[in-house]
Amino acid sequence: MDAGGIATGRRRVKAALFIFSCGLGGSLPHGLGVWSPLPAVVVAIALGAYGFKAVFLTPSRVLLDGAKPGEGAPLPTDLPAVDLVVAARDEEAVIGRLVERLSQLDYPQELLRFWVVDDGSEDGTAAVLAEQQRLHPQLQVVRRPRNAGGGKSGALNTVLPQLNGRWLMVLDADADLQSDVLRRLLPVAEAGGWAAVQLRKAVVNAGHNLVTRCQAMEMALDAVIQEGRLQSGGVVELRGNGQLLRREVVLACDGFNEATVTDDLDLSFRLLLEGQPVGLLWNPPVQEEAVTTLAALWRQRQRWAEGGLQRFFDYWPRLWSGALPVEKRLDLAVFFLLQYGLPVMASADLLASLLSRTAPALWPLSVLALGLSGGAILKGCRRSSEGPALPTMDLANLALGIFYLCHWFVVIPYTTLRMALLPKTLVWAKTSHGGGAASVEPALVDPTP
User: Fold this and answer.
1) What ranges in 104-148 are assigned the alpha helix state H?
2) CA separation for the pair 100, 268 (Å, rounded)
3) CA–CA dist 195, 276 (Å, integer)
4) What's 291's DSSP letter?
5) Helical residues (DSSP H) of 111-150, grouped into ranges
6) Does 299 have pLDDT greater than 60?
7) Closest of 329, 306, 307, 335 to residue 225, by C-alpha
């Protein structure tokens, strides 16, 4: 597998070089006694021009919505076969509900097969699946030992050779889909020549507390930014739950990478390098539970941050080698700096300012990042959206959403430092679902050399 053979020790070295470079960039102005916000202002203007164009100046037209039955062009009669795939571990609370929902999809049943990989469940998941198989003959269950290795990627790779559909859709155990989603999604994917299409993720429990409300705003922000990047010639990333993949393309990429903690982000880059286009659909969304506690959020975001950095460390030489169009390389560079470089540099800048008793120098970049994010929240939450209602965009919610995003200024530096200093272990974390609440807990730890 392309990334699977990359030594984890190389990631550790790259993480150390990354944090050293960002730390130097954030602290050097204070050490040289030449503090000035002017360089940060110049960089903020350059990055902000691209970010502003992507988020606010691109028309919302590429894959905005899947046409509803009876609207637009008639649906094709030769709909493709689809495999719906779920990797489940200890999902007794929700797996039965998911199978029932999949059985109610408005799609020819002879073209659908449901696959659940029971990845070493120790609760009642197996019993629930046995009952669901009795009720729904199209349900196929594949069982793996709990210590089989590879995490979610390993579970998906186990079933991949057995799939026969032209498309496969990867779902989490708590997923919920509108009944017409496949009839609206498949014609778009087929007509557009997409290798993969990611559904917008919508939070079903946004009203549970402030943590879930903020995540609902964040998912809207993410979809807006991804749509803008797509329309600007940039890069769209898969998000795991609700990703539709052309089976032959996944096989050509050697399946899912078992040496990463975020299989979706890793596959996004491998598709990118193979020239396989990835799209995004705003409506209809895939619905899922948000984590409900700060502790669960902290653990989840560490995994997302580590997986995001892993893919850049693994593939950056090829991404920057000239194999990609200039606009995609520019897009990757801008958003890498804003998502990963800025939080580490800002932390170094703040520490250096405290030690030198000078004002922070990188505040224009931080203001830029939070300003663009706030604008994306505002734009996303005011859009016409199917599925769960998005939070109302009043001043209080907008301020809450922007403040909430500051947690990345802690998560990214902490995760990068941990990747650079601690012995590498491949940790696959799953989200435990309770049919209305969620929490993240470690599910598998595979020591690697």
Assistant:
1) 125-135
2) 30
3) 6
4) B
5) 125-135
6) yes
7) 335
Q: What are phi and psi of 371, to 5 degrees?
A: -65, -45
List, edge to edge, every strand of the sheet that includes 112-119. Answer: 139-144, 112-119, 82-88, 167-171, 243-246, 196-203, 278-288, 176-177
Radius of gyration of the chain (CA): 22
Report the predicted TM-score, pTM, of the whole model to 2 decimal places: 0.86
Q: Tell me how many degrees the CA angle 189-190-194 measures, rounded to the nearest 5.
A: 50
- Tokens found for residue 395: 């001043």
- Are the C-beta atoms of 243 and 264 separated by less than 8 Å? yes
CA distance to 5, 52, 257, 271, 274, per residue, from 250 (Å): 18, 33, 11, 8, 11
Amino acid at 342: L
Q: How many Å apart are CA 190 and CA 67, to the nearest integer?
A: 13
Per DSSP, what are the bridge partners of residue 198?
Answer: 243, 280
User: Residue 366 has which token pair?
Assistant: 């931080």
Task: Please determine, for residue 96, whether its predicted confidence score (pLDDT) is greater than 60.
Answer: yes
Q: CA 446 to CA 41: how far, in whole Å?
A: 44
Beta-strand relationship, 167-171 and 176-177:
unpaired
Tokens found for residue 344: 């580490």
Residue 221 to residues 198, 242, 293, 322, Cα–Cα distance (Å): 15, 17, 21, 30
pLDDT classification of 183: cutoffs 50, 70, 90: very high
Domains recognised in the chain with CATH numbers: 8-56+333-426 (no CATH), 82-209+224-318 (3.90.550.10)
β-bridge mates for residue 442, sequence order: 429
Strand partners, 83: 113, 168
Question: What is the SS3 assignment for 169?
Answer: strand
pLDDT band at 179 (very low <50, low <70, confident <90, very high): very high
Do 172 and 430 form a contact (C-beta atoms < 8 A)? no
Dmax over CA atoms of the chain, in Å, equals 73
| 3-state secondary structure at position 86 | strand
Residue where the block lists tokens 């991404």: 319
Q: Is the peptide bond before 284 cis (omega within 30 degrees of 0)?
A: yes
